[in-house]
């Protein structure tokens, strides 16, 4: 379609070159647990396609959150804003960056479907039903999140609901389902995989919350306390609100979403006992997931056990 | 998924309740020309699915252009900005509106694929290949457009290239191809439909350019001269740049994208002969499309003739 479009295609390809590739890994794990062969190339396009979905979600997320960085590099809208400014082009640099981010996210979202269907397996239609659910659920979760951010406070229960849609189903449950469905899994195994995925996915997101406050910027690629500066109403913040006293709640109300209060809020999350409480939740959810893995039996412990550890004990 | 999500789903449904439904009409026309039965319900989901794609493109387009209105109502980002402000919610109202618009566009884009595949025809995989092309091409066209807007001037040839991807292929060619492929069309008919679609689609977009400057706001649902106020570098503007004198070019350079110069620019487009030139282009493209329709023969004149008129002689 011409060299003018290289800039867009290159940005798409380089964006998905990084990342943890958790969703493809869970898709592949579902495939293996349901009896798919590890060396069958047909699973590769479907599993890899989920990185386009994740790329789309991240590019649009960074735009909505106004995040400056992603994986230690400028976010897409910031990168194209800089190219516009440095190239002394006509018009508004920030607007140009935002437009490119909207379009790049749309492109990646379209490519997810296209690549997923390239897995030439007779089971693709059954697996696509889970991809469809996944795509609707992740937007629904993000919408609940965006609406939740407009409330003065968010209860732990409400924050956990966002986590369920935005992370647990999207990152773990549906990718497992897609892989399993591609290998021809029946309803029983699909349900058993949900029993693993939901606690595991919730633990995954709680770990993300913790890393968003206490993570090492050199490892996470995000500035320390970024979630607090952006004012995200995470489960960790909701738990702090629940456990702290009136002075703590006043600090939360005033400091969340500002750059100045990051250190004080980090301290509050620790001293209120919220960090410990969330770590206890993670441990409990991990144990639930482990028990569900054991109930599936077969290759499940070998396949899903290591992935569960990566999801919940990671440092980035 | 709970009542909190009704607001998002309702916005999606009410958005696609309006509109000209040109893409479904072209998809249905392709189906008929290729021998599909008019009363076969299997074509309906695929044709209707294209309204989700169009809804997604419009919601994201309005966001990128900062448009306040769509079809005489507030654009989605403005509507949700107002709801946030009127509901006295926490945080930035404009940011909330923008986030909802990003998410709603993503949701509609996902629903396009899902609904298209609900047409339970054995030809769906062949038709999906054209949907995939369509989705990539429309983003590519929008990217070329966004990049084109950052140049001091855009030649008629460059502006026509944007039109080809963003409008001719997206609005006419690929919908015709999808419908024809669903009815089992071979490569010959697909190529013949391109011969109709590209001139017709270009004429369609040129009509849009003219309506964006000279259209009746009561009929178009957009304020008069909106394209000029937004500074769009359309073919009509490129043609004016080409035909006018130095004084006219100075007026274009200074006035395009401002509210004050709308009347003067409207006048310039008329007096420079650009409007006449574009009307002549539309007539020539219409004649090309008509000749291509006649070459297909069969039911093509009856099916495509009226649609060609709607696309190029409309007033909204």
Automatic annotation (TrEMBL), chains A, B:
<dbReference type="GO" id="GO:0046872">
    <property type="term" value="F:metal ion binding"/>
</dbReference>
<dbReference type="GO" id="GO:0008299">
    <property type="term" value="P:isoprenoid biosynthetic process"/>
</dbReference>
<feature type="region of interest" description="Disordered">
    <location>
        <begin position="67"/>
        <end position="91"/>
    </location>
</feature>
<dbReference type="InterPro" id="IPR008949">
    <property type="entry name" value="Isoprenoid_synthase_dom_sf"/>
</dbReference>
<dbReference type="InterPro" id="IPR000092">
    <property type="entry name" value="Polyprenyl_synt"/>
</dbReference>
<protein>
    <submittedName>
        <fullName>Polyprenyl synthetase family protein</fullName>
    </submittedName>
</protein>
<keyword id="KW-0808">Transferase</keyword>
<keyword id="KW-0460">Magnesium</keyword>
<dbReference type="GO" id="GO:0004659">
    <property type="term" value="F:prenyltransferase activity"/>
</dbReference>
<comment type="similarity">
    <text>Belongs to the FPP/GGPP synthase family.</text>
</comment>
<dbReference type="Pfam" id="PF00348">
    <property type="entry name" value="polyprenyl_synt"/>
</dbReference>
<keyword id="KW-0479">Metal-binding</keyword>
<dbReference type="InterPro" id="IPR033749">
    <property type="entry name" value="Polyprenyl_synt_CS"/>
</dbReference>
């Amino acid at each position: 379609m011409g060299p003018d479009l290289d800039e867009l295609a290159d940005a798409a390809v380089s964006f998905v070159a990084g990342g943890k590739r958790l969703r493809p890994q869970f898709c592949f794990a579902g495939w293996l647990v349901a009896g798919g062969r590890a060396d069958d190339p047909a699973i590769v396009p479907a599993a890899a396609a989920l990185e386009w979905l994740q790329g789309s979600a991240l590019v649009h997320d960074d735009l909505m959150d106004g995040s400056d960085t992603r994986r230690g590099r400028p976010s897409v809208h910031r990168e194209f804003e800089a190219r516009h400014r440095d190239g002394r082009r006509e018009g508004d640099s920030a607007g140009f960056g935002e437009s490119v981010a909207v379009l790049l996210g749309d492109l990646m979202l379209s490519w997810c479907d296209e690549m997923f269907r390239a897995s030439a397996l007779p089971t693709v239609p059954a697996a696509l039903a889970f991809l469809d659910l996944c795509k609707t659920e992740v937007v629904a979760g993000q919408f609940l999140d965006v609406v939740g951010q407009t409330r003065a406070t968010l209860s732990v229960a409400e924050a956990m609901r966002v986590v369920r849609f935005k992370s647990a189903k999207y990152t773990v449950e549906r990718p497992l389902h897609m892989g399993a469905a591609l290998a021809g899994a029946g309803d029983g195994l699909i349900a058993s995989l949900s029993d693993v995925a939901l606690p595991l996915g919730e633990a995954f997101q709680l770990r993300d919350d913790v890393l968003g406050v206490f993570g090492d910027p050199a490892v996470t690629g995000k500035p320390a306390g970024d979630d607090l500066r952006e004012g995200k109403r995470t489960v960790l913040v909701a738990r702090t609100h629940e456990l702290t006293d009136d002075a703590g709640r006043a600090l939360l109300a005033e400091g969340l979403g500002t750059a100045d209060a990051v250190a004080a809020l980090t301290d509050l999350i620790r001293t209120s006992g919220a960090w410990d409480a969330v770590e206890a939740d993670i441990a409990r959810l991990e144990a639930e997931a482990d028990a569900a893995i054991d109930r599936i039996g077969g290759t499940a412990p070998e396949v899903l056990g290591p992935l569960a550890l990566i999801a919940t004990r990671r440092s980035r």
